[in-house]
Amino acid sequence: MSPAARPEPARGESVERTPRILVIRRRYLGDIVQLGPVLRNLRLHWPQASLTVLVEEPYADVLALHPDVDSTLVLPRTVRHWVRLLLALRSGRFTHVFDFDNTEKTALLTRLTGASFRIALHHGGFAVRLRRSYTHTAYHPPAEHETHSIAEYYLQALPAAGVPVATREVRLVPRVEDLAFVRALLGRLSGAAVAPQTRFLLVHPGSRSPFRLWPPERFGEICCRVKSELEARVVLIAGAGEEDVLRQILIHAGAGQPVIDQPLSVPQLAALATQFDLMLCHDSGPMHVAAAVGTRVVALLGSQNPVLFAPPGPGHTVLQPPLPCRNCVAPGICVPGDSYRNYCVRNIPVEQVFAAIRDQLARPAAHP
User: Which of 101, 137, 335, 347 could covalently link to 321 via disulfide, CB atoms 3.0 to 4.6 Å apart?
Assistant: First the structure.
């Protein structure tokens, strides 16, 4: 990512005193989207700072949509590229490092920078790894952590650096070239012209966890009912590796169901979301991307914490079955108490999802 233009230091201010900030959050997509308030508050407090974010390669391109980020560093996969990263960290002259991963690897990378301010954030029963790698730590007690969003958790690292919290907004800004691309894509997909009052629903049925997938036949039924009963346009999209889920949905979605089956980058997905009134999805990275560009979502959750992982911003609908589970759909497979290993999302009925979509589409458009 090319560095963005920033104001020159004020007269008499040395370049060395201008903060050079490194933020570390390796993954996942939703977690990096939720870094937005941290990045915005750092920029508001230090307008002239250089702001770099270190991530894993699959999540690097979302940072192009964070307007406060100057540059990106990527955790490499080969020894040769590791040498380059270590040299970049050492020569980067970072003054502040915010480590939101709290792993031994990121602790060592933090220490290597030699920054005068180095902070690790941790919560619950997770202790700080390699404590001596940091000059500061910030702890989020369990009662606080479980009742606030992940973005609010990240903000706990700012006070130790003297950075006030002026905003909590999570915002991604789509690029002009990506908007042009998706408009052309949808133009080819839609065919006939549509009435100006037509509402549009984007359905993203994927998840990186098979335990969090709502049944494909129910997605298919939703597509049919939204088209026939609400007279809205529905478009399906799936990511890499989700082709089988998409195929099963199409069996039940009816003839002529528009599908975007080509791979899209995260910036293109963000631009695509702005062209729809609503997105139906699971608790996933795409959910956070859509919400961060201002598109309302109907999100399907299993036993995940609905506050900690809620879509950012107002106006969304989060659906979740009654918990603790009283009607296990996979006894012997589900692991009680482990939100990553149960199928609770399958206890959300079609009628509840359809009612949520109907109510959302009856509201004024989020993107005029």
Answer: 347
End-of-domain residue from the set 137, 161, 185: 161
315: DSSP letter: S
Buried b (16+ CB within 10 A) or exposed e, 104-128: eebbebbbbbebebbbbbbbeeeeb
Q: Give dist(CA 222, CA 227) in Å, integer.
A: 8
Query: Which tokens sit at 148?
Result: 């606030």
According to the model, what pLDDT value does residue 236 have?
Answer: 96
Asked if 206 and 352 sit in the same domain, the reply is: yes
Instruction: Kindly state whether residues 106 and 249 are assigned to the same domain.
Output: no
Q: What is the pLDDT of residue 339?
A: 77
CB-based contacts of 165: which residues, under 8 Å, 6+ apart?
37, 41, 155, 158, 159
Mean pLDDT of the chain: 91
For residue 193, what are the contacts with CB-CB under 8 A and spacing of at least 6?
none
Strand order in the sheet with 117-123: 71-75, 50-56, 20-24, 96-99, 117-123, 136-140
- 21-55, pLDDT tens digit by residue? 999 999 999 999 999 999 999 999 999 999 999 99
Q: Indicate the pTM of the whole model.
A: 0.92
Same domain, 94 and 183: no
* CATH (domain of 336): 3.40.50.2000
Tell which wins on pLDDT, 331 or 297: 297
Single out the residue of 88, 61, 94 nearest to residue 177, CA to CA: 61
State which of 111, 128, 161 marks the end of a domain. Answer: 161
Domain that holds residue 66: 15-161
Question: Is the pLDDT confidence value at 9 over 70?
Answer: no
The reply to whether 205 and 148 lie within a common domain is no
- In a domain? residue 168: no
